[in-house]
Amino acid sequence: MINKDIIEAFKVLAKEKNIDRTNLSTIIENLFLNLIKRKYGEDYENFNVIVNMEKGEIEIYQHKEVVDSVADSILEISLEEARKTEEGLELGDMYIEVIQPDKFGRRLINNAKQFFTQSLKDIEKQTIYDEYSSKIGNIIIGAVHQIQKDRIFVMCEDKELILPQAEQMPNDRYRRGESIRAMVKSVDITSRGPEVVISRSDDQFLEKLFSLEVPEIEDDIIEIKSVARCPGDRSKIIVSSADKRIDAVGACVGMKGMRIQSIVRELNGEKIDIINWSEQPEILITRALSPARPLDLYIDEEKPYAVAVFEDEELAMAIGRNGQNIKLVTQITGYTVDAVGKSHYEDSSSEEKSLENNASSIENCNELSEKVIATLIENKIETFSDFLEKKNDVIKIKGMGPKTIQKIEEIALRNQGND
């Protein structure tokens, strides 16, 4: 038997490292199996280590076969020697010998301490990895521990987490010791152990803040359809309600704006546009373009692509600083959206119409002879559309043979296909 004080010492150390009893028991078993292999060699499997954490006992047993003549003293014991302890043993029986710790020697015991310390570190790393892997996507609260140029170290329940510069908000200002909320973004295994990365700029961080502040989201009454952020500046979030009696936008804003104000304070004044979901793209895109209101919206659902036309004085608001608003609209709706001013759109439309007219004008056609063109214009056939409408009359015009009529018709149909 090994003194209870040894297990108690292990328990104290394990408690400091937050190691549970099951893992501690496994570590102690492996520790003594490691000692056995060091003393007797790697090839022997006739040893058992039993750890009783409740009683504070560790038992080490060596199994030997009772033989007449011993060839290997680690695996075998003579009948004469075995009967000194158990008189009833016969040849071929299994003899169980209890190993005392003093057999291992001081040097091996020191090696065991190193093994135990390393095992604790490995378990501690795995525990941290498992704990925070299960928290990915969740919000944690920690304290700013150390501030560096490219990262901030945050302490959370005695664990050091990393907030990289890329995951920080531009308008955040940190002071050592202050409380901070962030979302667990990833857990990576490195040579130094698990590296837990947290974020305040991720889209999902905003989504989780809404889930915390709006009970209807947690209760699955309100669904967050999509989120797009320009961290620290502006965000857009699309919500829908499964209950027609509950206004999704109103629930997110809260009584007197209390819910949304709480989120805005957490994000240091980041503007948040809450958008009511619609299955109709034109309604959804119009709502997403807030605070600007488009005059017209032209949508191609197949691409998907949209052109939003605004009053000239509202165009800057629609696009946003550095194109921010229009980028967020594109991200949150899934449509590539271009914003144009009314005057520019009208000029572009006039040019297109002019080009279309030129293309359909018989006078500008290079494929017909001057004589044919002159004849057609004299008979008030000025465009290929006119020709198709009055084809029966054109056939009667003097000088218009079947081949000429066929050629004009081919050109007319080709132009019509390009319109």
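The above is record 1. Record 2 follows with the same two-line structure.
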Amino acid sequence: MKVKLVTFAPHPNFGTCLQSYALNYVLRKMGHDVEFIYNGRENPPQPFIRTAIKKCLKLFLPKSFIANIKAKRKKKVENQCEEPYVLQLPNHPFLYWLSKLPFYGNVYKMLKCRNLQWRKVYKFTYEDGNFNMRRIYTHRQYGEVVADADLFITGSDQIWNPFCGGFNPMMFLEFVNDGTKCVAYSSSISQPELPPSVAPRMKADLQKFSHIAVREQRSVELLGKLLGRNDIKLVVDPTYLLAAEEWEAFGNRAEIEFEVPERYIFCYFVGDRRTDVYERMVQDVKQFTGIPDVITLECYDGDLNYGGGRLYKDAGPYEWVWLLRHASYVCMDSFHATVFALKFQKEFVHAMKNADTETGSQNTRMYDILSRYGILYKNYNADGGNDWQQRIDYAHLIPLIESEIKDSMDYLKYEIEN
């Protein structure tokens, strides 16, 4: 079956990379011909020339100056944005024309691979045989994709969270209007409520989906109410669907540029709004475990380091998995780092990425996974409590997770075949 997979394209957020890899891998393993569809325009629509100028300026302006501008702009957006912005399906005939030129691939790679981390992500995405990528530039190409598809699947991650990069019509398959089958697997809203400004459009878009499976119980409830359906299914993230041994083999492809300590604390923080909490948490873990070595992986070319340890800015997806797999303890604010810690049966502590009252807070997904497995005590509170030090009873937890994985895999097969 020709399956078109639509989710966030890989970039240096390793959860994003690995959830897209996992679903693509599982679908291929089932024997399907999988093509990853993306448009590369997940930012608010803006003129191409303006975008090109901004990229050129980044090459010449000091990083500290750019970081200061971004911080001021981010704060302004946070103060003003109570409702999500809405993206458009891009239409860039000029870019499409450029993509047909013989030198375009090399130029694109040069611009994309601006540092070692991006070179690793690029290699993982385009050169290692992990994906069959197809970029969409024009409205006409959407029609070509639809004509070539037996089935569309919207994948995992927060593709339906309108505060995560905006309300993206690509992720709701607004370009599929000919009756081609559409299903969702582990798509995430990750919000306690649906914003009124986009709920009607979301409802209209999701009418075409014959099966909908989501990642959080709250998403089940919200979509059930929105659509008047009682068949919305709760499933696990696709990263669960690979066995620990498969992920271990994946991580063994890592190329780490330094000598890794025998025992270390692995840190992975996607957010940057609670850095004081993160630092306090890492220091508490160092004291609790007696482990002095800390390795922090940076995913957005930042300079945030924790626990006085090593900041590793050159990691790609393989290095991320390997370092988490071999860590003695894990500190994170990341959903997918939590999934992998559970997959590898690690001891960990998690800090919420946002304040619960923050507009667009993504904490719903974390409360869901920690509560579902009875390990909410692993959520770090900055009030001095030590509940997070309690060990996880994996002998009790693993059978529950394995049952969910089997149920989710069965449902994925069902929604494809029925």
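The chain has 15 helices and twelve strands.
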